[in-house]
Design brief:
The complex is a heterodimer of chains A (221) and B (89).
Chain A (H helix, E strand, L loop, with lengths): L1 E6 L6 H10 L3 E6 L10 E4 L19 H11 L4 E4 L1 H8 L6 E3 L7 E9 L15 E8 L3 E3 L2 H9 L3 E5 L11 E5 L5 E4 L18 H5 L7
Parallel strand pairs in A: 1-2, 1-3, 3-4, 4-11
Antiparallel strand pairs in A: 5-8, 6-7, 6-9, 9-10, 10-11
Chain B lengths: L1 E9 L6 H9 L15 E7 L5 H15 L5 E9 L8
Classes of the chains: A alpha/beta (221), B alpha+beta (89).
Keywords (chain A): ATP-binding, Cytoplasm, Glutamine amidotransferase, Hydrolase, Ligase, Nucleotide-binding, Purine biosynthesis
Pathway (chain A): Purine metabolism; IMP biosynthesis via de novo pathway; 5-amino-1-(5-phospho-D-ribosyl)imidazole from N(2)-formyl-N(1)-(5-phospho-D-ribosyl)glycinamide: step 1/2
Subcellular location (chain A): Cytoplasm
Chain lengths: 221, 89
């Protein structure tokens, strides 16, 4: 599959995301924030980092980047889209996902090997995992506290749209220990931890992140 | 020209870690009667032309779409009339 990774000014993990995509055998396609062009890719990743310097709010300015017009339209047509960390924030600001991410409740940047439970393996990004799989994936964020109103949380829980939940500790104050969610259709996924940093044994806590990229094999755009 | 002020505040029910940090620092300066601090943002927009209902509506649209995130923040808009010229010195 051809997987596009968008680079915004201030993206940090775009190269790691492209590397992860290549490791599992996909073709990585570099996409540029300023282009109205997805180059016909089969899936899109919005990577981590500090796009537009996190000015105003994380993801608030990126949402209006030219490429996002195409990402939003394609996502609404079912294109698999994965937002990691800053990418998750952009998806929330774009209203492709409900809720928002705010500063960690303990006010410190967190960087740790985080245990998670994959609770929804019915998305193109998680189908490689067994439902309920417990994995370890590095987490690094300053504004990763997931918040939403009670009705939205009830809907996410009721519809099985909590994709992944923090285990052992809640590292950032996220409501319901939410680490990742998906949209109603299941093609758009936002995830605060970084699976692209967990794809090689040499660097990091393991290779549990691979599943997010191998899952795409069975997905149809 | 008119100046519009957009104040953006975190919603009451949303945790405000920045406000909490400020609240924690004030007693160290000897200000020990402060019960709560909420931190928001203030935008000043200078807009061409006389203030009109249409401009006000535009500024509200800016506040809704970009300056604030309605999921976690509330905003208010006010207009500041600017003098047409500076002082006559």
């Amino acid at each position: 599959m051809r997987v596009g990774v968008v680079t915004f000014p201030g993206s940090l993990d775009d190269e790691d995301a492209r590397r992860a995509v290549r490791i599992v055998g996909h073709e990585a396609v570099a996409l540029w924030h300023g282009d109205h062009d997805l180059q016909g890719v089969d899936a899109v990743i919005l990577p981590g980092g500090f796009s537009y310097g996190d000015y105003l709010r994380c993801g608030a300015i990126s949402r209006f980047a030219p490429v996002m017009t195409e990402v939003v339209a394609a996502a609404q047509q079912g294109l698999p889209v994965l937002g990691i960390c800053n990418g998750f924030q952009i998806l929330c600001e774009s209203h492709l996902l409900p809720g928002a991410l705010i500063r960690n409740d303990h006010r410190k940047f967190v960087c740790r090997d985080q245990r998670l439970r994959i609770e929804n393996n019915r998305t193109p990004w998680t189908s490689s995992f067994d439902e309920g799989a417990e994995v370890t994936i590095v987490l690094k964020n300053g504004e990763g506290g997931y918040v939403a109103d009670a009705d939205t949380l009830d809907r996410l829980e009721g519809e099985g749209r909590v994709l992944a939940r923090y285990l052992d500790v809640n590292p950032n104050g996220s409501l319901h220990d939410i680490a990742g969610i998906t949209n109603e259709r299941g093609n758009v996924v936002g995830l605060m931890p970084h699976p692209e940093h967990a794809v090689e044994a040499l660097t990091g806590a393991g290779t549990d992140g691979l599943g997010f990229f191998t899952s795409l094999v069975g997905a149809t755009a | 020209m008119a100046r519009y002020v957009v104040d953006v505040m975190p919603k009451r029910e949303i945790l405000d870690p920045q406000g909490k940090a400020v609240l924690g620092a004030l007693p160290r300066l000897g200000f020990d009667r402060v019960l709560d601090v909420r931190q928001g943002k203030r935008f000043e927009l200078e807009v061409d032309g006389e203030p009109t209902d249409q401009t006000l509506a535009d500024v509200r649209k800016m506040a809704e779409t970009l300056l604030s995130n309605p999921v976690i923040e509330d905003y208010s808009v006010s207009v500041v009339e600017l003098e047409t010229q500076g002082s006559d010195q």
